[in-house]
Design brief:
alpha+beta; 52% helix; 4 strands; elongated
Length: 157
Amino acid sequence: MRHVAIGLSVAALVFAVVVGWLAYGARADSAAEAARTEARVAAEEQAVAMLAYTHGEVDDQIAVAGEGLTGDFRDEYTNLMKNVIAPGAKEKAISVQVSVQGSSVVSADADSAVTLLFLNQITTSSENPEAVSSGSRVRVELEKHDGRWLVSRLTPI
């Protein structure tokens, strides 16, 4: 009788360990899937915020886009926009509209993700008032900070 009780105790312990491990795996898979969805949506929204601007509102748009970027990348982006893009946009009345044509998650976990976006850009300017359309692909790297997905790098491909 004693051997049966020990055997049942061991079996119950093994069962509990297996159930716990499976539950942990399911939770990790669920977190990864949520990360994939949330990061893809954040990448799409942030890419449009970063790359689209109008010559009359470019300064305000730089500040809004910067809120969705990590520290070092935010500094790089803000510097480029304020010192190169915005002056040219104002001088030549350049406006850029951006739309996401397709997106995919390359990799994701609970705190970081890499996405690939296919973008369509329509540009107008005082020198070329007829809209010029161009397509591009960008790799967007994101990090999760305080529950928000922020872009840490955007690389044209």
